[in-house]
Structures
1.
Amino acid sequence: MVKIRTLAPLVTLALWCGAASALRRPLPQMVAVTRRAALSGGLSAVAAAAVARPASAGAAPAGEPVVSADELAYWRAKLPKAQYRILFGRGTEPAFSSPLVKEKRRGTFACAACGTSLFASSTKFDSGTGWPSFYDALDGVQPVSDNRAVWALIGSEVHCAKCKGHLGDLFMDGYLWQTPTALRYCIDGLALSFEPAPAAA
């Protein structure tokens, strides 16, 4: 099984090298193209062959935080099965399945397992990919790799710095959406909880 959202780099390159025609979109509108639409333009086979990686099962990537058997047992008993699969099974939820994709209120997105603050709502943007997307993170987010070249080439999984739960992926394709950091944190909604900001007095 392939994580479609990890195909960012080659899809991005292809977009600027002729995908505009394939998708019947004028080039100036490419900054708003979604990953789902890009793959529908016939690019998925080429990109998948080059940068596809397992969605969950199998060996964890180098640098993956180690979660002990006792910790896994604790979270398995505490979390709903779907959340456990995402956070501690390195799963991926279906695109557009999380209500947090459309969450626009002021507040903080936290880890659904341990409650660590992860993202400020001010950094959330609509990527059109079907997963909550952010252009910056708080200190509670830990990439598996700190090598920006890796982020640009294949992306990096990101985890909660406290409980080590898997959150999603980090890509350096944010310029497609003109984000101020050129980054895109593509996060599973089931890995998050949302804490609205207090109402103004």
2.
Amino acid sequence: MLPATIYIYGYELGITEPFIFEYSRGESPHVLETGRYSQCAHAPRLALSPDAQVLAVSVDNGVEFYNTYDGALYDTVDNVFSGTINNMAFDASGKYLFVCGDRAVRILHNVCGYYTTIGHCERLLKTKQTSATVERLNNTIRECKVTLAKFGK
């Protein structure tokens, strides 16, 4: 489920720092969050998860995962390839990140996505919800925690 607002990342605008803008109809864009990513010799590749909760940034031959809610770096996967990363994309469910380089495609689990989903559901539980929504949110949190336990997290 995509948010009602549109998020634009500063990389697309030629800005060296990741700026997140929120655009609502009739309003001028304004900065919501700024942050820094690890500088590298090559231009970074970006992939935004379908639910817009995780931003993956390529840094030479590694991938950094950022939580878009607070802009925090969640994790870094180093040495995905011996060369640079050519392209990245999340699958439609947002559970996997496909990373292309060295004439191969590697598939990474979006572990950060499970943590961001838990955080999103917990924030929603703090607001007034129907009993059915509360049950659905609690089930989602439980399923994410079970999946994270399988990864040893």
3.
Amino acid sequence: MENIGQRIKQLRKMLGLSQREFAEKIGKSLRAVQNWEYEQRTPDESTLRLISQTFGVNLDWLKTGEGEMWVKDQDKSGVSIEPFEKLIQAINRIEKIPSVVEKILKDYYEKRDIEEFTNILSEIIKEIEITSKVKIDNVKNSQIIKAEKIDEITYKKNK
């Protein structure tokens, strides 16, 4: 059975934070975070609330392991969405993710398989970077071609 320290460690790793970074974000010492994760101490109620509020994690889950890990929150339309859905929305604003890839990501997210989730997300980001570079290169090339055509037309007119 997981304890609070293990859940804090799970949360920290999901967020991709070192113990030091996690401690800084909540205004606690590195030693405090280490003590929690190594089950040498238990954070007090106010610290648990602070962790919950800072990272959007469900306080009940943090205390007991029961319920969903993440607190549901509202987008501008008032519809409840989870952090995963926000991530997908943000990526889709840049480059549309195929639905099959989105489903695979969601499966790993729900299973809390952070390593595979991160690997797939990294590949998506690389693909977006490549696609963006190609689009930029295409725009540059079309501008060069237009400039060459203008030069050619100007040259013919001046002849």
